[in-house]
Write a structure and sequence with these properties.
Blueprint: E1 3-5, E2 12-14, E3 16-19, H1 28-40, E4 45-47, H2 55-63, E5 71-76, H3 81-94, E6 102-108, H4 111-118, H5 124-133, E7 139-143, H6 146-155, E8 160-164, H7 167-173, H8 177-186, E9 189-193, E10 197-200, E11 214-216, H9 221-232, E12 237-241, H10 246-258, H11 268-279
Parallel strand pairs: 3-4, 3-12, 4-5, 5-6, 6-7, 7-8, 8-9, 9-12
Antiparallel strand pairs: 1-2, 10-11
Length: 288
């Protein structure tokens, strides 16, 4: 599978990343088989968080045979130094590792959270300590809005940003462009989420993929292929975690394998199909 350098980290990561929530509540044998499938198909970047149920404990056991050959990232939603330090240490134990390749602030969704992270006694003190102690080799954060992401980037020299880069979000709402521009200019590695998201679940709609809080593109393989390539060929994007469902992981791998292990820029026909599809979408149903 195609590898790209993740910004300043220098890590050569696969264009598909393993979203750790996929193994939540999964039996150990099944989780082991899914991780093996991912590794054997070239995925070498695994991302998880304490808020993903029991995922970090399940993933820790499943990933143990491959730890030296892959990159492992975790996150914290705690905004204070004590809470984030406790989560980091617990995650190291759960994931059976001595260090993280990347440790991130999870889902920074308000300016108040930014202020908390960087205030005295805030969680940024934890990442500085973790870097000094060798408990993480890089640092990053996830956000969903340009304004908040750019504010975080003003405060510290982050190595990575987890951010939504989605065909509908960008083409209909015109969002996420400023963050990508900053990351390209400053060599910040972009981990692009929501590549295979279509829209939010509608009221009363059966959530056939209950691990996903949005409707993934599972019922239109052409759209899935175009959407995935749309995201992965944006300037600055390095890798895209697959949605939190085994079926979507396997679909994403199938798409990349069908392209000889590489991403593919959209041709005229695919761009026309995408724009035609977008015209039929309801902006109110978008998830971001």
């Amino acid at each position: 599978m195609e590898k790209r350098i993740l910004g300043k980290t220098g890590l050569a990561v696969s264009v598909l990343a393993f979203g750790g929530f996929a193994v939540s509540k999964m039996e150990s044998k099944a989780a082991g088989e899914l991780v093996k499938f991912a590794v054997e198909n070239g995925i070498n970047y695994f991302d998880v968080a304490p808020s993903y149920g029991d995922s970090q404990y399940v993933l820790g056991a499943a990933l143990a045979p491959y730890r030296k050959d892959v990159y492992l990232a975790s996150k914290t939603k705690k905004r204070d130094a004590n809470g984030s330090k406790a989560e980091l240490l617990e995650s190291l134990t759960a994931l059976k590792t001595d260090y993280f390749d990347n440790f991130q602030f999870h889902s920074v969704d308000s300016m108040e959270e930014v202020e908390q992270i960087f205030s005295k006694g805030g969680a940024f003190e934890t990442v500085l300590w973790a870097l000094e102690e060798g408990l993480t080799r890089n640092i990053g954060f996830s956000a969903h809005e340009d304004a908040i992401a750019l504010e975080m980037l003003k405060h510290a020299d982050f190595d990575t940003v987890i951010f939504p880069v989605n065909f509908a979000y960008r083409e209909i709402k015109g969002e996420s462009t400023r963050t990508l521009e900053y990351c390209v200019e400053n060599n910040v590695g972009v981990v692009a989420i929501k590549a295979l998201a279509e829209r939010g679940w509608l009221d009363g709609e059966e959530k056939t993929y209950p691990r996903c809080w949005y409707k993934p593109i599972y019922d239109n393989e052409r759209l899935a292929r175009i959407a995935l390539n749309y995201t992965l060929t944006r300037d600055g994007v390095v890798t895209a975690p697959t949605p939190s469902d085994e079926r979507m992981l396997r679909l994403a791998v199938k798409i990349i394998k069908s392209q000889n292990g590489r991403t593919k820029k959209l041709g005229h026909e695919d761009r026309a199909y995408l724009h035609s599809y977008i015209k039929g979408m309801n902006i109110e149903d978008l998830i971001f």
